Amino acid sequence: MGRFGHALYLAAMLLAAATSGLLIGPGAYHRLRFRSHDLEHTIAIGHRMAIAGLASLVCAIGCSIVLAASMLISHGPAVLLGAVAFAFVSTLWFVLPIARRLRDRT
Question: Can you tell me the distance from the alpha carbon of 81 to that of 95, in angstroms, rounded to the nearest whole number?
Answer without folding.
Answer: 19
